[in-house]
Specification:
Number of helices: 6
Number of strands: 11
Shape: elongated
Order of helices and strands: HEEEEEEHEEHHHEEEH
Length: 314
């Protein structure tokens, strides 16, 4: 049965927002006087409810395998102004909002699944923290995979944790079999053939089972958390008049790191090097002690046998 295509990536590009949703983005350092720098903004494809779409991402390292993480002071923050383009909504009574998420710079997430809703006409303050897990590679029982190393070898693309590895594995299997990608395959970004939303799931139980067995936990796993405060925009749009949803067209977002907290979970060997040498040294000492006692017993037995032979000799 041939799968029909509801939309393709060219149509998504053509009928997407006519302008970037990010009207302005600045990186600001507050230290006596403010230092402002424009953000790097890029656009990537992703599926929203099974339909091809595009998202905008800030300061992404995708496709940049040699890039390094920045060490920033806690007085640094992002200031972002967003435009909802309410005039392009088919139904003017629909609620105006944008999906947004904070994630690792080396990968994408689907903000509809993993992000939060930012409503039109509001100002948001977002505070970011991070959880980090460091696991032990083979031969330890965590048997983790160094996805970051593989990501760099793959020119800055690919999964960075076990969940995205499973989705990436499913995507490759569907492509190898010439099948379309259904809405239940969540790896981004990709521009493979997309199934119609009415198509049944193309991934199979065997695919899911094989990919789940193939993918191991990440040796380094990072997950971001955010707390946000919501308030009405102080300055409403001037000249709105009778324009529909005009006051809900804009969203202001500031992302702060002043309350940044790093929570680490680090796996350590049950026996570290010094303990291992102590155990080995202890066992060697015991073995040598037993051996020394055994040799003394042997010498004593030989002496007694020799003396007995001399005494009994006629």
């Amino acid at each position: 049965m041939e799968n029909t295509i509801a939309f393709d990536w060219e149509i998504a590009e053509k009928f997407g927002p006519t302008q970037s949703m990010i009207e302005s983005c600045e990186k600001i350092y507050e230290s006596g006087e403010s230092w402002r720098f424009n953000c790097s903004i890029r656009k990537f494809p992703l599926l929203i409810k099974g339909y091809p779409a595009y998202c905008y991402t800030i300061e992404s390292q995708l496709g940049q395998p040699e890039s390094e993480d920045d060490i920033l002071p806690n007085n640094f923050y992002f200031k972002i102004e967003l435009n909802n383009f309410p005039s392009e909504y088919f139904k003017h009574l629909d609620e105006i909002f944008i999906f947004a998420g904070i994630h690792n710079r080396r990968q994408l997430i689907n903000p509809q699944k993993e992000g939060v809703i930012l409503k039109g006409g509001y100002d948001y303050k977002i505070h970011v923290s991070m959880k980090q897990i460091e696991r032990l590679a083979f031969p330890y029982n965590t048997n983790c995979t160094d996805y970051l190393k593989l990501w760099k070898q793959n020119n800055g693309f690919g999964p960075l944790n076990q969940d995205t590895c499973i989705e990436y594995c499913k995507l490759k299997k569907l492509k190898a079999r010439g099948l379309c990608v259904d809405e239940f395959t969540f790896y981004e970004p990709h521009t493979e053939k997309v199934c119609s939303v009415t198509t049944t799931e193309t991934t199979t139980y065997e695919m899911n089972k094989h990919c789940s067995m193939e993918c191991q936990p990440a040796c380094l796993e990072q997950d971001y958390e955010m707390e946000y405060e919501e308030a009405d925009l102080e300055t409403k749009v001037k000249g709105c008049g009778a324009k529909v949803n005009c006051n809900e067209a804009y969203i202001s977002v500031r992302v702060f790191f002043a309350k940044f907290r790093l929570s680490e979970q680090i796996y350590l060997p049950k026996i570290v090097d010094i303990e291992l040498f102590s155990y080995i040294g202890g066992y060697i000492g015991i073995w040598l002690g037993i051996s020394f006692v055994s040799i003394c017993d042997l010498l004593e037995s030989l002496c007694q046998l020799f003396c007995y032979t001399i005494k009994t000799k006629p």
